Amino acid sequence: MVSTPHIAVIGGGSTGVGIARDLAMRGLDVTLVEQGNLTHGTTGRMHGLLHSGGRYAVSDQASATECIEENRVLRDIASHCVEMTGGMFVKRPEDSEEYFQEKLQGCKECGIPAEVVSGEEARQMEPHLAKDVEKAITVPDGAIDPFRLVVANAASAQEHGARIETHSKVTDLLVEDDEVVGLEVEHASGPGKRVHGTEGGTEAIRADYVVNATGAWAGRIGDMAGLDIAVRPSKGVMTIMNVRQVDTVINRCRPKGDADIVVPHETTAILGTTDEEVEDPEDYPEEQWEVDLMIETLSELIPMLEEARTIRSFWGVRPLYEPPDVGSEDPTDITRDFFLLDHEERDDLPGMTSIVGGKFTTYRMMGEQISDHVCGKFGIDAACRTADVPLPGSEDFSVLRDYMDEFGLRSPIGRRSVERLGSRADEVLKTDGPNPTVCECEGVTRAEIQDAIGQSGSDLNAVRIRTRASMGNCQGGICTHRMASELHGEYDESVVRDAWDELLQERWKGQRHALWGEQLSQAALNYALHATTQNRDNDPAGGDPVDFAAFDTGVDHTGDSGPADVAADGGTPDGD
Amino acid sequence: MSDAQPTDFDPVEPNTGEDFEPVEVFPDSDDFDLRPGADSCYKCSVCDTNCPVAEVDDDFPGPKFQGPEQWRLKQTDDGYEIDDSVMSCSNCMRCDSACPSGVPLSQMHNTARGEYVEEQMDKLSVEYVRNRILSNYRLSASIASKVPRLANFAMNFGPARWAMEKTMGVTSERDFPEFAQQTFRQWWAARGGADASRENAIESRERRGEPAEADKKVAYFHGCYSNYNTPEVGKAMVHVFEYFGYEVVAPEQKCSGTPMFANGMLDDARRHAEVNVSSMSDLVDEGYDAIASCTSCSMALRQEYPELFDIDGIEDVASNTYEAIEYLRIHEDVKGEIESAEVSGELAEEFAYHAPCHARNQGLERQAVELFRDLDGVGVEDVGDSCSGISGTYGWKEEKYEKSMEIGDEMFEHMEHAEGETGMTECPTCAMQMEHGTGYEIRHPLELVEAAVVE
């Protein structure tokens, strides 16, 4: 037998990790590179809907059918990432009855369990629905945590021997004799786990085949080998509410339009979205009117949203693609289907395939098809197992535990922790040491933070997406410094400072479009707290290392004061 | 809403039972929704730093956790449980007034506690039975007051108290309050009830140069303690209000619900509240204002009732309820009368005054000190803003007794430092604690007003 092929996968979103896991499980050597954190691109910027397929049941029945199939698969293999909330398509008086019937019919045609309920019944399920909602169609929509899903896929790929490199940006494709033979990456902090301040460097990664799974960034990778991949990035805004106004996914039952969905997500509810084509997936305007539109329009379905607290808004770009000859004007008309572009067939450049388009719910199915394609290149006949083998964390588990007896945790904190960790709960939460709550809003304890640090190094944003720490209503006001402190011991002060700065920046960024009412109060408190207790407004240490030895050690238990030759402010003992 | 029958309505989570007609109750369910309250919290922890229980009990996670944090964490469809630590909250409600952002903390605690007791607490447990008995003090008191001498003996009979502590978890450290030989209501009936009060009021109006038919009438919510244990407070209230020309009525009433809220016995509290609201709202319709001499009773009628229950007339009752001295300070020149008065005899004392937490929540913590400042023969010294620590039934629980006394330490110390050796407060259970910690006799401000202006 020839040696095992080595496949390089570019892109650490759902598609990339899905492919990496699938190929690794089939026994191939896999290296996945991602320019930022896992989920850095579009995956980390979606509303967390596990589609039933209902949204596509009229316009795109092929996608709808795929969605309901994958919806069932993910409930099974990714149970710790999914909350089966159920969903509804609600009809207001001004919405078309004809479309309502088409939607119902479409769901039936696609095998999506759908039932009509009256307005009263819908309000029994969701008391905050508008009183004039006439009726609704219930469907098996759900909520899914894209962060947890991607992290679990990457962990599974690693268990099967894959190498996962985050913060490693592809700077060039290696092309020899008119064939792609690998890629060149720039590591932000050296290979392996990210540690701030570690010297980076470039690495040439030779591969037998390259898969470009960079979504909206696919064109940029293509350019490196002179390929024209015309992805049409389309931005959408999502606004996060502080609490769940609904426990069911609420869709507006009308053909298409902005601001037509509310997804309950963990402790929050996410409002979405818009659909507007942009030039550059990394540089596009994020405007307040888009957020206002979400709240205003969705208040027609759920009136209390008008007065409710928003904690954050974020924008994502869909990696839409259509064959150039279709020529849709409006991005909402572009298909949500995915395209596999074999550059050998398409551009006479062997060695690489790009995958564009597609949607999160069907990431596994896309991975399966790409993996089949890649295996075909090498004449490997290995069955796909990703639909049957649960992800790490989703093996049999129950959230009904005695949290205090087993983990020493208060009931809602224990419950949230176990829901996030799934079958890994015992391994992570049963610790010998003290296990204080680090993030109070989301109920994240030290043990879970330490587990995440163990996976991802000093990157606190990577800790955040694994644990939800700092994603609650104070947006890190109370916990970012605590999270940073958890790095202490293993990492030096300068690493901790850099990691802390980066997390804070990221937390502030998303609040720019939530600064009114209660979240403005929160921001004011956070600022004051950070300025007055952490020198965050103007740090005299200013990046220079602090001479901690110059501080005294305080009063010890015997009542003696510390060494006499140092002062508590780091100055000289006589106060000069 | 057309009647005051018990409903299945549960403020914690909307009832989605089959008989439930959501369109009918929808407008009301908005009022009970705690989402806006959870939205108001910005995690500053001022509630935690003001919580007297958190200060002494390291296992108690504090009001922020019990309220907005837990509410938000358990907000999903499936059966999240309430953490049992909510039973350690004493319901002093200091967090409510501490919060700079208007989070309805005590409402969150009360609903969570109600849910915990309803859904999770073992109804056969000693703790449940003990809490049920403690919170239904009115029932015990009404039986005991039929045979007050026997009750006074039995309730403080050593071996019986030892047995109560061992089997029920009621501390044997405290003396049970004495039951009066004649309850307030017995006195009131014997005195001629409302008719007698009207005559007295008219007489006072003539003396005061007011029209005989002046529209001055109040409905007295005496509560259980003034009725069964300290009728002298009730009598003082009647005398003082009549002196100022008010007709007093003493309508049918049950427990205000205060001890029931604190123990999560919301069904009991609702049953009592329905009687109270029903009789009070009829009177409010006729132009009466509701007056309480116990600050926890007025707190319950004003704040907890509309926050927790949906009973016809509840908002009207809440917005027309006052504490007795508060009411007089609003409508009468009671301060002027007191300035020109002089007290001699039994109440010519220096008083160590403690403002109850529930008085603080109603903005009444300075009223006694301000009112009596220029009263000749009397001195009133505020002993500070700490909590007395007993919080109704909290300090009666065997497992909370030590903590209750630790909370009370600051108040005891300040009382010792104060000049007087008589205590004063509006709250019956604070009075128990003050007496227990210092041995002082404790009086109610109404008694002093009576001594100053009536006698």
UniProtKB/TrEMBL annotation, chain A:
This enzyme's EC code(s): 1.1.5.3
Associated pathway: Polyol metabolism; glycerol degradation via glycerol kinase pathway; glycerone phosphate from sn-glycerol 3-phosphate (anaerobic route): step 1/1
Residue ranges of domain FAD dependent oxidoreductase in the record: 7-360
Cofactor(s) listed in the protein's UniProt record: FMN; FAD
GO biological processes: glycerol catabolic process; glycerol-3-phosphate metabolic process
Enzyme class: oxidoreductase
Main location: membrane
Catalytic reactions on record: a quinone + sn-glycerol 3-phosphate = dihydroxyacetone phosphate + a quinol
Membrane protein topology class: Peripheral membrane protein
Signal sequence interval, chain numbering: none
Domain BFD-like [2Fe-2S]-binding: 438-483
Domain of life: Archaea
Annotated region described as Disordered, given as residue ranges: 535-576
Keywords (A to Z) from UniProt: Cell membrane, FAD, Flavoprotein, Membrane, Oxidoreductase
Location(s) in or outside the cell: Cell membrane
Protein name: Glycerol-3-phosphate dehydrogenase
Record-linked CDD domains: GlpA-like_Fer2_BFD-like
Assembly notes: Composed of a catalytic GlpA/B dimer and of membrane bound GlpC.
Single annotated GO MF: FMN binding
Keyword Repressor: no
Family in the record: Belongs to the FAD-dependent glycerol-3-phosphate dehydrogenase family.
From TrEMBL, chain B:
Domain 4Fe-4S ferredoxin-type: 78-111
Ranges annotated as biased composition (Acidic residues): 16-25
Name assigned to this protein: sn-glycerol-3-phosphate dehydrogenase subunit C
Annotated keywords: 4Fe-4S, Iron, Iron-sulfur, Metal-binding, Repeat
PANTHER family: ANAEROBIC GLYCEROL-3-PHOSPHATE DEHYDROGENASE SUBUNIT C, GLYCOLATE OXIDASE IRON-SULFUR SUBUNIT
Gene Ontology, cellular component aspect: glycerol-3-phosphate dehydrogenase (FAD) complex; membrane
A biological process term (GO) from this entry: anaerobic respiration
Pfam family name, one: CCG
Taxonomic source organism: Haloarcula pellucida
Any GO molecular function: metal ion binding
Region (Disordered): 1-25
